[in-house]
Amino acid sequence: MASLKSQQFGEFDLINTYFLRNSSAISAPNQEGVNVLLGIGDDCALLAPPPKDHIIAVTSDMLVENRHFFSDADPKLLGHKCLAVNLSDLAAMGAKPTAFTLSIALTHINHDWLAAFSEGLHVISDRFDCPLIGGDTTSGPLTISITAIGHLPKNTALKRSNAVVGDDIWVSGEVGDARYVLGILRGEWPTIAGYENFSHRMNAPEPRVDLGIALRGLAHAAVDISDGLLGDLQHILKASHCNAVIQIDQVPVSALFNTLGQDLRRLCSLRGGDDYELCFTAPTRHAAQIEAIGRNLNLRLTKIGQITEAMKDVDSANTSTHQFGRMHLIDQEGNSLNDTQTQIYLKSFDHFETS
Amino acid sequence: MASLKSQQFGEFDLINTYFLRNSSAISAPNQEGVNVLLGIGDDCALLAPPPKDHIIAVTSDMLVENRHFFSDADPKLLGHKCLAVNLSDLAAMGAKPTAFTLSIALTHINHDWLAAFSEGLHVISDRFDCPLIGGDTTSGPLTISITAIGHLPKNTALKRSNAVVGDDIWVSGEVGDARYVLGILRGEWPTIAGYENFSHRMNAPEPRVDLGIALRGLAHAAVDISDGLLGDLQHILKASHCNAVIQIDQVPVSALFNTLGQDLRRLCSLRGGDDYELCFTAPTRHAAQIEAIGRNLNLRLTKIGQITEAMKDVDSANTSTHQFGRMHLIDQEGNSLNDTQTQIYLKSFDHFETS
After folding, report:
1. What is the structure's pLDDT at A24?
2. Which residue of B has its CA nearest to A56?
3. DSSP character for A90?
């Protein structure tokens, strides 16, 4: 086998060189710790059970070249982002990361690309104490598929179905930057000076893991904003059988929008995705505690609206049905947006819709 | 949203129609049960912790069009196979399947293909009580990525590093059919009458989950044969720091090889992959119990060799080193194969090697 390996860089060499850490031997599993009983190098990885009275959270995301990232994307940022989007899903459930698997298809072996990609991946993996425990490598069109596993105390999950009428609706950080930067790169709107200072919001989103964990027992429902604030919030409304009223001009945006018009600000902040902030609902009595969490984490937390009852529709046969997932959008003058305007901001990015 | 949906078949329609079962509502998670606390439809799926004194096994496999399957592959068989290869990894660790996630990139929405693919997937999912709990769908070159989760009692894992000198080496079922059928389809060798009766071995492999579970406490190490019997066995030898002697003509093959020559039989059975049988090692004192398991499962189990000590090499400076992973191949006349012959049979399929 030695002669083969010296001639060719195979699958095992690839895993050893870029993904297996602190070990030079193919056969020696590493990255073992409290949670990881057996890492890369066997048919399965082995994990210890979660702590007592905890349950397990599992999430998967797939990133495809030219669909989720440009071909010339910085590989180090890409390595960060592909794990960040999965950690963001764990955060939206209130779960603490345990470990992840990576399956990756590569068109060819590009050592510079792999060194940078794996570095980006390992840095965020270390930062969130979420080791790579296994996966698959193959040749094929560049596709990155990650499954992240986490754990959380039972009965604390921030499920989409948990929102309650009267809950405040909160958003973490600021939303819209990622969509605005994407629009510049796509030529949808003109570039502006200094926009590069905000491109990390699209390229290197920060998963709100600490926030998700801190919200256990305080928030009812949460979702991470990947497809657009209102579209993602609508998942909560539908799952919880309720509606919402949103003060759209209270939605927090960055300084990037200071000199931009109202329309673009609303479009990017309400409909834009890829910011990976959390949108969550919580009873008003917890508002002070939530504000304290924001101060502790040095993270802006903004109330943008409230959960309301599902509207009762009575049809011609006098049968009443409840309509879930409706949003009543109110601007800074206190005026309600009409249905057409509302639909524009509601439309999320869908990977199979063509418009 | 209703008007959008009637015009376009989006990501949520796709999940609802083909992957979410026994439910017509997007928001209602289903497939909940003893293990699954929350299925498809939230940021994460939620699983109950494993049974007392059990640990968690995790495995991921990615299948790429034209690399792991032909473009015209029967989608129902493909749905079976993409879960089967992951269950096979759980089997090789002695784990019982718990649940799985599916991330899939599709070039376009083909309803016939999706209906057949999801049917194949659901049938094997039901048969092994391993529900689909989440994942991702996106557009992109056809790529299927599955992560399967299982559980097993602690200290029973059939780790590759557990083989012990003196262990018998066993193979389940028969090996070589999948490689022989692939060779016909690729034009590597002539077709023969009746080969179609064996093509399910390539297209619809049977994961040996019950065998893996039955071997807990009896076998030491196991691997599933995906890349080739000897190449996969070599992973055990390297991880366990030992060597092996193999009676190559005792390797079990099907009736397909009755009329074929010895060379092709050896090539397909020793080097061919994709059969997803188990190769495992066990102390000789457990042979009778292992034979009984074979009878109970109606599955041929064949002893093909033995684990031996690592050879000690003494170099010119009189320093001794142990060489792991060497195989001594013996034919039916009791003759040893030379190094060149051995290397031919040892070479596994590697997705990044070009030869």
Report:
1. 35
2. B47
3. H
**Closest residue on chain B to A110 (Cα):** B352
Q: Is the pLDDT of residue A219 over 70?
A: yes
Closest Cα in chain B, distance from residue A228 (Å): 14
Calculate how close chain B gets to A83, using CA atoms only, in Å. Answer: 14
Among positive and negative, which fits the CA dihedral B178, B184, B188, B192? positive
On whether the pTM is more than 0.95, the answer is no
**A27 touches B at CB < 8 Å:** yes
- Supply φ then ψ for residue A113, to 5 degrees: -60, -45
C-alpha span between B169 and B219 (Å, rounded)? 10
CB within 8 Å: A143 and B105: yes
- For A269-303, what is each residue's pLDDT tens digit? 999 888 999 999 999 999 999 999 999 999 999 99
Backbone torsions φ then ψ of B246, nearest 5 degrees: -125, 130
8 A C-beta contact, residue A76 and residue A112 = no
Binary contact (B222, A43; C-beta < 8 A)? yes
Taking one residue from A and the other from B, the number of pairs with CB-CB distance under 8 angstroms is 265
CA distance B256 to B122: 30
Retrieve residue B222's tokens.
């196991």
Residues of A in contact with B143 (CB under 8 A): 62, 64, 105, 140-141, 143, 145
CA distances from A9 to A107, A123, B232 (A): 14, 25, 18
What are chain A's domains? Answer: 2-153 (3.30.1330.10), 160-346 (3.90.650.10)
> Average pLDDT by consecutive 10-residue portion of chain B (355 residues)?
43 85 43 77 95 96 93 95 97 98 95 96 96 94 97 97 98 95 90 88 94 98 95 95 96 92 93 93 98 98 96 74 88 92 77 46
Q: Which of B43, B92, B99 is facing A59, going by the closest CB pair?
A: B43
Residue A139, H or E segment: strand A132-139
Q: Each residue of A10-29: pLDDT tens digit?
A: 787 888 889 887 543 333 33
In whole angstroms, what is the distance from residue B355 CA to residue B352 CA? 9
Cα–Cα distance, B307 to B239 (Å, whole number): 12
- Quote the distance between the C-alpha of residue A192 and its chain's center: 26
Contact A354 B8 (CB under 8 A): yes
CA distances from B305 to A3, A183, B233, B294 (A): 26, 63, 11, 18
